[in-house]
Structures are given as structure tokens and as C-alpha cells.
Design brief:
14 strands, Rossmann fold, alpha/beta, 409 residues, Ubiquitin-like (UB roll), 5-stranded mixed beta sheet, Helicase, Ruva Protein, domain 3, 14 helices
């Protein structure tokens, strides 16, 4: 029997130099990476483990505890791991080879979604050099990076496009989608992404050979949005000028997920927590100082400054950005597979051991294949452990569901 397990979610961390991207990465993963005030300090992609946070289902079920295996549960909060990839810094025209060139774009391939860390205080110019806060429009940085990614995609897709498009003309819609998916598979773009992009652009029934450059770029734009959704981490919100700039950017980018963030504040809290100075759970709106013996007056003042920011925005924003990326941008839900629907345990007696992050719309049969290939092949039915009701293979799993898969032996 082949165990597959929950799909691994990978989030790429984007941003020009000196916007606090490495600080965000360190705060989210507590893995030390170089943090210096100079361009291109992050020369190679770094990977670490971050976590999404959600109230654990054991609380809802009235259980005194759970015994997680693939995740962590603290104070009734389940922390589920995701991979965070810190992608090398970039500058405008990177898709044309400027700065680190396409190195950052190649690193994006593996990501399911992207967090764009932006200097919302406008204190760095387009090349990442420090300037007076408010002198740079962060909106320009947001648009520039998204354009760079789309230009890179266009460069790949447009190669030999006329010949490829003529071949597509002779295929039915399904074959055309399959051919496009094959051509774009190296970019980690899936068939369902292509279907959505064609529908959004209303190009599904037109001949690809008739697409002008404008239509091809429109298709790529739609494809980028559905295949690599971007959440904006409006970093340096603790700088006074950032508050009004943030409001302006939100107005100019309606419908976008934009979260105010103090990555430095989060890093301070996590380091203080690790040393036992404060009691803080990532994503909490506040913290408690439990030991002042090792703290200087300067450090105590720094903690109070962080607290002031948290009061304004409900936290530092780092945990919220990760949660928004997984649950909103990627539209994921949590599912807890169990073997005993009465005790909510696995074969070893672990209570609610695994929390799977799966796309909304995942069925009981889909989950069976995720857990074990043989469970999928020999699927009979599933049991909703909350209601004790038997459900079929097409049953769409609700968020925070607890499911027992029954298969023929």
C-alpha cells in the first residue's frame, strides 16, 4: 500500500531588495538567513517551514486534547506546515537579464502561490536603495514585479507561437487544453489553470492562430492570476508614513489581498519567545511579558513599540499573510482523516493525528487517494465522523471535516 499524504503547499516569497523579505522569512520560519542593508543579499533560494494557523477541530468536538503527528497543536490552535521559499531579490527588467536576471523567475516555478513583500512606507527606490519614507510609490513596485513575471511567461509561451498556434487550430477544445498544459507544464501550470484562464478571457472558442499579441498577453495575465495568485504583504507598516500610503494602495488595487505587516516586529516577538521573555503564539493580537530579567530598557521599549503596532492592526500580520495565502488565495480547506470515527483516532490511537490542507471541492474519493493509493482504488464509502453518516465518493468535504475512508480489503 502506497502512502501519499497531504499535498505539500509551497509559497514563494517575492520582493525587491531591502523591503524586509529576509526578515519576513526569518520571522515566519526562524531559520537564520543573511539580513543586511545591501542589494542581492539573498543570492540563492532558501526554503523553510512556516505554518498556517486554524482553531483545531478537537475543540469543536469537545475533546480535551489531540495528538498531532503531521502538525502542531498549541492551546487549541492547529499549526499546519507549508514550505516557504525565499526567492532571490529582483529589480525592474529582471526578465531582460538585469540584476540577477531570470534566476528569481526560475525559482517561482515550484510555488503554488506567492507572497509579495512590499515596502509600504515607500522608503526604498526601484533598485532597493534607501530613501526618505514616502518618496517611493509602493504601487509601482507591485505592478513592476507582476509585469516582470508576466513578461517572463510571455517570453516562454511566445517562442515559436505561430507554428504551435496553427497546430492548436486543428484540435478540439479538450485537445487544445491538453497541448497548452503540456507546453506549460515546466512552469507548474496545470490543466485546470488553463481552463479558467481561457474562460476568463473568453478565448476558449477562438482559433489560437488568430490571437494577436494583445490577446496572448491577456491570456498570460489571466493565467498568472489563477496559477500563481499573489498576496501582498504591506511591510514596514510600523513606519509612520506607511499608514496613509497603505490606504491609498488599497484604493488603487480593489479586490486584492493586502495585509499590513511588521516583519521586524514579528521577528522580535519570536526571538523573545524563544528566549522565554514573553508568552506569544504566532498570529495572536498581543503578547505577555513573563521574564524581564534578561531584557534591557531598550529591548523593553522595542517590545512596547511592537505592541502599539499590533493594537492598530490586530497583530504583526506575518501569520495573517500566510493564512490569507492558503485559505483565501489558494482556497484551501482543512480535512482530518481518521481510522476510527468514534474515537477520532488512527490505528495507533493518535487523536486527530493528521490535518490535510486540500483544495475546496475535494471529494471523499480524492482524499482516499491522498491517504493511500489502495484506499482510492478500492474505495467503498466514507464516514463523516462528526455526523456518523455514510457518504459516497463524490461527497465534497466541508472545511474542518473529520473523515473515515472505508475500502474493500
Amino acid at each position: 500500500m502506497s502512502k501519499i499524504g497531504a499535498p505539500r503547499i509551497t509559497i514563494g516569497l517575492l520582493g525587491k531588495t531591502n523591503v524586509g523579505k529576509s526578515t519576513f522569512f526569518s520571522a515566519a520560519t526562524m531559520i537564520p538567513v543573511p539580513i543586511e542593508n545591501r542589494p542581492f543579499v539573498t543570492l540563492e533560494p532558501h526554503s523553510g517551514v512556516a505554518y498556517v494557523r486554524r482553531r483545531c477541530v478537537h475543540v469543536e468536538l469537545g475533546l480535551p486534547r489531540c495528538t498531532p503527528v503531521n502538525s502542531i497543536c498549541t492551546r487549541g490552535e492547529r499549526f499546519i506546515p507549508v514550505v516557504l521559499v525565499d526567492i532571490p531579490g529582483l529589480v525592474k527588467d529582471a526578465s531582460k537579464g538585469r540584476g540577477l536576471g531570470n534566476k528569481f523567475l526560475d525559482a517561482i516555478r515550484q510555488a503554488d502561490a506567492l507572497i509579495h513583500v512590499v515596502d509600504i512606507a515607500g522608503s526604498t527606490d526601484e533598485d532597493g536603495k534607501y530613501i526618505k519614507p514616502g518618496y517611493r510609490d509602493p504601487y509601482e513596485d507591485i505592478i513592476a514585479i507582476e509585469n516582470e513575471y508576466e513578461e517572463w511567461m510571455y517570453g516562454i509561451i511566445s517562442r515559436d507561437w505561430p507554428r504551435f498556434a496553427r497546430a492548436l487550430d486543428h484540435m478540439n477544445l479538450g485537445q487544445m487544453i491538453d497541448a497548452l498544459a503540456q507546453r506549460l507544464s515546466g512552469l507548474s501550470i496545470k490543466r485546470e489553470h488553463i481552463v479558467k484562464a481561457l474562460i476568463v478571457t473568453k478565448l476558449e472558442f477562438s482559433k489560437p492562430s488568430s490571437w494577436r499579441e494583445e490577446e496572448l498577453k491577456m491570456f498570460i495575465h489571466a493565467l498568472r492570476i489563477v496559477a500563481k495568485p499573489i498576496v501582498i504583504a504591506a511591510n514596514k507598516i510600523d513606519i509612520p508614513e506607511a499608514k496613509d500610503i497603505m490606504k491609498d494602495v488599497v484604493k488603487r488595487l480593489p479586490g486584492r489581498i493586502i495585509v499590513p505587516v511588521s516583519a521586524l516586529g514579528e521577528l522580535i516577538l519570536r526571538k523573545a519567545t524563544a528566549k522565554g521573555y514573553i508568552d506569544y503564539l504566532p498570529g495572536d493580537p498581543d503578547f505577555k511579558i513573563v521574564d524581564t530579567s534578561g531584557l534591557t530598557q531598550q529591548q523593553l521599549r522595542a517590545l512596547e513599540i511592537v505592541r502599539e503596532v499590533m493594537k492598530l492592526y490586530g497583530g504583526t500580520g506575518v501569520q495573517k499573510v500566510i493564512n490569507e495565502t492558503v485559505f483565501n488565495a489558494l482556497n484551501m480547506v482543512i480535512v482530518y482523516p481518521v481510522e476510527d470515527p468514534n474515537t477520532f483516532t488512527d490505528s495507533k490511537g493518535n487523536i486527530l493525528p493528521d490535518a490535510y490542507l486540500v483544495p475546496k471541492g475535494t471529494t471523499a474519493l480524492d482524499l482516499a487517494y491522498m491517504v493511500h493509493t489502495d484506499l482510492g482504488k478500492h474505495f467503498l464509502y466514507a464516514i463523516d465522523a462528526k455526523t456518523k453518516q455514510r457518504v459516497g465518493k463524490d461527497y465534497i468535504l466541508p472545511d474542518n471535516s473529520v473523515i473515515k475512508i472505508v475500502a474493500a480489503t
